[in-house]
Each structure stands twice: as C-alpha cells, then as structure tokens.
Amino acid sequence: MPARLKLFIPLILFGVLALFLLRGLSLDPKELPSALIDKPFPAFSLPALGTEQMLNQDAVSGRVALFNVWATWCVSCRVEHPYLTELAQQGVAIYGINYKDEDAAALQWLQQLGDPYIANIADREGTLGLDLGVYGAPETYLVDAQGVVRYRHVGVVDERVWTTLLQPIYAQLQDGGEG
Question: How confident is the model at residue 169 (pLDDT cuts 50, 70, 90)?
Fold first, then answer.
C-alpha cells in the first residue's frame, strides 16, 4: 500500500464513524418498537407507592389497562397528567409506574394534581422500567386483560394520541379482540 494512501485511512475511518453516529442520533425512540409487543407484561414484585405493600402482575391484571410510566422530575409527565385524570374519570383503567422517583415527592404530586391511577407501582430502582425497555418518562403501555402488552407509546398521552392511537386499540381489546 502506498505511503500516501495510508495517510487517508484515519480520515476514511472518521467518515464512516461519523455516518454511523449521525444515523444513530436521528433515531426517534417513538419509532423504536418494543420487544414486549404481544408478550406478557414482565413479572415483578414491587411496593405500592408510599407503602411497603407488595404489588405483582396478578394484582394489576384481569382488565384492559394503560400502564403509565411517570415521575415528578419529568416535565412532560406534568403536561400529560390532566389528560390522564380526564381519561380515568371516563372509566379508563390506568396503573402508574412511578419511575426512579422519591415516594414523598410522588405522593405530594398526586395530592396536588389528582390521582388518576388505580394503583401506583413504586419502581424506585428502575427494575420494572428496565424489564419494560423504558427509554424515559412518560411512556404508556396498553395491556390486555390477560396481561399481554399490545401497544407502547413513548411521549405524552394527549387527546390526539388517545383518539388516534390508543383508544381504538383499547376499545377493540375491551370488546375481546387482540389489538
């Protein structure tokens, strides 16, 4: 190999690496599929928020429900919270997964903003979030009555997301369909 050509090897390697990095930075986590779709909700045994009463997948299954990953440090969670409260008032079953948060802060948040959740799983160390493949909060999982994950949404659940994405699947699952 000529000596001059060897001088260009670092530049070529840099160019290839730059292309891979640029491609990686353009990935939108909302477009990344969940490995859990059509698989059972992960097994867990974690305390209910603010208590040491243990919850597991049996305690939160048996009905079609949303599982909302949220935290007090999450600005977007504050944005979506009023709409989740509205959905809960309409009869939508919602379980909370309080993700890597302090119980006292989370309980204060729910006292001030309202509590749309049937129960809140305190995922203090993020173990359930890891099993779910959570990228960050908020994320919402739609789970059927048999405890199978049917859909995952990354980002805020608002009226548009509910009516165009989640509600049609939720209704189909309520009617006994598979989503």
Answer: very high
